[in-house]
Structures are given as structure tokens and as C-alpha cells.
Amino acid sequence: MGRQETTRSCGKIRYPTELDAKIALASTRRARRGAASAKDERRYYLCPQCHGYHLTSQGRRNGWKSQRRRHVAAVAPEPARLNGVTAFIENIRGEWVYTIPELEARGIAQSREEAKETVRTIVGIVAPNVTASFKYGSDEQDMGMLYALQVAGSQNKTTAEKSSYMEPLLSRLRSRLFRDGFRFRKYDDRYPGPPDIALPKYRIMIFVDPCLWHDRSECKRKAFPPEMLRIWQDAHATQWEETLEDRQRLVDEGWTVLSYWECRFCDNRRREKRLKAFLSDVRRAARLSRQ
Fold first, then answer.
1. What is the per-residue pLDDT across 196-252, written as a single tens digit (0 to 9) for each?
2. Using CA atoms, how far apart are residues 210 and 236, in angstroms rounded to an integer?
3. How many other C-beta atoms are found inside a 10 Å radius of the C-beta of residue 29?
4. Tell me: the pLDDT tens digits for 48-105?
């Protein structure tokens, strides 16, 4: 890393090159312990006075480029527990965006090779002896199909339709309900959604939503390209808002709506425990409906 110096005109630490600033920002986040605060450095910027780079805790105000460079406030893992990192390199609107979620580093390069070299440099300085693996993506890819292939595998019958790649999980949930004495309808198009599982007798609607819809930090799956996922969510934001409005309408009409994220049931070690918790939720809602 280049030599650090405090400029007289700015009174801040000056980094002579953009790469030095990127490494310093990643190092700062790597060394942090505890929850993020408002004073923590979030990005770097080019100073018009000293023509160097400074770190700042202030986020950018607007613009697509500013949003994609924004860093997620999260606690970096302990160095001893970090065996490897996954770097995403995506071609977004003709620019190469690299992201290292484990180190909370993000930036833009002129080419794919430059992005890979920058990632290796950051990882080598911030987390030495850690191996970096690369995953690639492009905004020309169908994010829905990419997600479906990752969830359901590469079978020829896989489609981006929710009823296709989530059917094994939904079948498992329905089987639990059936064995416990519940009778239900699936994909009942008389109701908005339609619900994955409907229990008209108890006025219960059950929805299981794909992980595409929630924030990546809340999900155990780490295989989705961050920038492609954000663009996909922005493009389908209206659809998601309408989905939430439909469910609120069901609640207003007296239905009990139970919503779950798909990844809740995907952990093999906790699946049985969470299936039992799911069944307990339905039983509790059924008892309340009888009162």
C-alpha cells in the first residue's frame, strides 16, 4: 500500500491511488469489531483539492453508480474463521463490478482481468493466506432462471416458475400438514397470490417466498451475484409491493396469513426442527380460528 500522509489543505489521510484507498477501506472494515456505527468509513472519494483519495463515512446522495458502490454495514468475520472468500465479478451495463461480500469490498474495473487482479490484491493484503474463488455474472442473464437452476438443479424440466423449482419444498410442507389431519388446497386461484397452501376451514393462507425477494445479508445462500440481484429486485419492486398489498387485503378480510422465506427450510441440520415449528404455527392459528 502507498505511503499515508495527512494533507494540510484537507486535514485528512491521503491515499495516492484508488487501489490504495480500496485496500484501506477493506482493511478498516476487516479490523472492525462489533456493530457498525455512523462514524465508520463507508466509501472513498477523489478529493478535488489534493487530487488524492480520502475515506469518508458519508454515503452518496443519489445515482445508480453511487448505490452500487455503497457498502453493507455488517460485522466482518474473525480472521481465524475465514477459510476462503467468494468474489463476484459482474458485467453491468458495460462496466465490470467486483464484490467481495466477506470483506465488504466493492468497486469498478475496466476489464474482467483488472477486476480479478484487484480482488487478489485486496485479499492478499487484508486477509493473507485466504483463497479467493470467483463467480461471474452479467445483467443480460435471466436472474429468475439463474435462481431456479441453483435451487432446483440443472434438470431439463426446471423453469423460472415458482411452482416448478419450489415444488419439492412445498410438497414436504403439505405432507406434514396432511399427516397431522389438515386438509388444504394448493394454488387456489380464487384468492390473490395464489397461496401456496390454503386451509379454508381455518381461514389460513400459507405463502413461501423465494430468497430473491429479501436482503442477501438475511439469507444463508451466498451464490447470487449482488448487483444482478439488486437490479432484478428494482425491476420487480412493483410486483412485490402488489404481493404485499394482496396479503394485507387477506388479513383485512379475516384470513390468517403465514409467510416464510424459502431458505428457512433449506438448512439440512435445522430442517426437521423448523418443519415442526411450521406445524406448530399452523396449529396455533387453527386454534385461534375456532375461538
1. 999 999 999 999 988 888 765 556 665 678 888 888 888 888 888 899 899 999 999
2. 13
3. 22
4. 666 677 788 776 654 434 443 333 333 344 444 667 888 999 999 889 999 988 888 8
Q: By the 8 A CB rule, do 254 and 244 touch? A: no
Q: Taking a C-beta distance cutoff of 8 angstroms, is the pair 196, 207 a contact?
A: yes
Helices then strands, counting H and E runs in the chain, come out as: 9, 11
Report which DSSP code applies to 80: G
Neighbours of 283 (CB within 10 A): 15
Evaluate whether 85 touches 127 at the Cβ level (below 8 Å). Answer: yes
pTM above threshold 0.70: no
Contacts of residue 122, defined as CB under 8 A and 6 or more positions apart, other chains included, come to 22, 23, 26, 100, 103, 105
Instruction: Please check whether residue 127 is in contact with residue 31, taking contact to mean a CB–CB distance below 8 angstroms.
Output: no
As a whole number of angstroms, the distance between CA 233 and CA 240 comes to 9
- Give, for 74, the enclosing helix (H) or strand (E): none
Which residues are registered as beta bridge partners of 256?
204
DSSP helix/strand/coil, 6:
strand
**Closest listed residue to residue 101, CA positions, set 111, 89, 115:** 89
- Angle ∠(286,287,288) on CA atoms, nearest 5: 90
Nearest CA-CA partner of 55 in 37, 81, 29: 29
Q: Which residue has the cell 472492525?
A: 32
